[in-house]
Amino acid sequence: MDDIKGLVFLVVNGSFVDGHGIRTTVFLKGCPLQCIWCCNPEGQAFHPELKLTSAKCDGCGKCVAKCRTGAIQIYSGQEDAKVQVDRQLCTNCGECIAACYTGALDCFGKYYTVEELFNVVKKDEQFYRSSGGGVTIGGGEATWQPEFTLQFIKKCKENYIHTALDTCGYVTVPEGIKALEEADLLLFDLKGMDVEQHVKSTGVSNEPILENLKKVDALGKPIIIRLPVIPGYTDSATSLKHTASSFAHISLQRSTLRAATTTLAPASAKAVAICAPRPTDPPVTTAVLPFNANISITCMFFTVL
Ligand code: SF4
Ligand code: SF4
Question: N or C: which terminus of the chain carries fewer CB neighbours within 10 A?
């Protein structure tokens, strides 16, 4: 098992939004979708990438001397950016990182064995136990590192730590499906029901996603469906009604949508609308209409600029 390594770009302790209770969320790098509203674009590529935090840079230029491709250069055009990286030239070799003593340069993506990552999440075990929480594996799309994700979930479960897998549902290999089956809870992100619109917004068809949702629903697995309500993309009444009527065929328990304005009405008699201007704002309107089984829907709202 030590041979299997997973590429992780972020570990968040004390999360309350990725499942029940207090959780540690690990974000695996690489995603088959390219959502135009992606809130973790640094998680899309399947390889480590150079990260530059301009605010930490003092313009010393030591990184420039280290770069063999000329990808990093001193920059004077903007007050808070003293260097700039040409992503076309950067090979993500990481050699400049060691030269940067301020920590302005770092790497998105670090390889962990299952044991190493488990030792990281285990530190918060007492919080999981006292709150009914656990570990959430998100991304990127964790099932695209299928063997690592499956073994990591098994390792947590062997140690009685609850596991949630946050998935876009675009899972195409048997090991990835096994990871969905193995997790205690699925946070299933749906980006819309219309195939054409889905391809335009994410780069892939939603057909395999909906097929996989049916498969995991048939297992009776606890599932939370998360719907991004994106102005101009997934927030139309037609789109929301389509989504709600599609869920009528699976065993939904309740639906929660968070939308852009206080004027958006619940999409259908089966939907819940939590209306708030931004994700951080408290809901100002809530309507709850229950479904009848073991799936619930929550929703994220992003502004597409
Ligand atoms: S990661 Fe490598 S190629 Fe990219 S800027 Fe740094 S030294 Fe240059
Ligand atoms: S080495 Fe670090 S602090 Fe110095 S110029 Fe490069 S990024 Fe900035």
Answer: C
HEC readout, 245-275: HHHCCCCEEEECEEECCCCCCCCCCCCCEEE
pLDDT in tens, 34-70: 988 887 888 999 999 999 998 899 999 999 999 999 9
Q: Within this chain, do residues 39 and 71 fall inside the same structural domain, yes or no?
A: no
Instruction: Kindly report the CATH number assigned to the domain that includes residue 253.
Output: 3.20.20.70
The residue behind tokens 């299952």 is 114
Residue of 52, 53, 54, 58 with the most ligand 2 atoms within 8 Å of its CB, for mutation: 58
CA dist 75 and 294 (Å) reads 54
135 and 244 co-located in one domain: yes
Lowest average pLDDT, out of 63-72, 90-99, 181-190, 268-277, goes to 268-277
Could you report the per-residue pLDDT of 70-129, keeping only the tens digit for each?
Answer: 999 998 766 666 889 999 999 999 999 999 999 999 999 999 999 999 999 999 999 999
Is the separation of the CB atoms in 97 and 132 below 8 Å?
no
- Please identify, among 87, 108, 129, the residue that sits at the C-terminal boundary of a domain: 108
Identify the sign of the CA torsion 116, 117, 120, 126: negative
Q: Rounded distance, CA 290 to CA 297, Å?
A: 11
Structure tokens at 210: 């909906």
The finding on whether 59 has its CB within 6 A of some atom of ligand 2 is yes
Does residue 38 share a domain with residue 95? Answer: no
Return the best residue to mutate from 90, 106, 108 for the ligand 1 pocket (most ligand atoms within 8 A of CB): 90
Q: Mark whether 104 and 190 lie in a shared domain.
A: no
Q: Is the CB of 95 under 6 A from ligand 1?
A: yes
Residues 69 and 203 in one domain: no
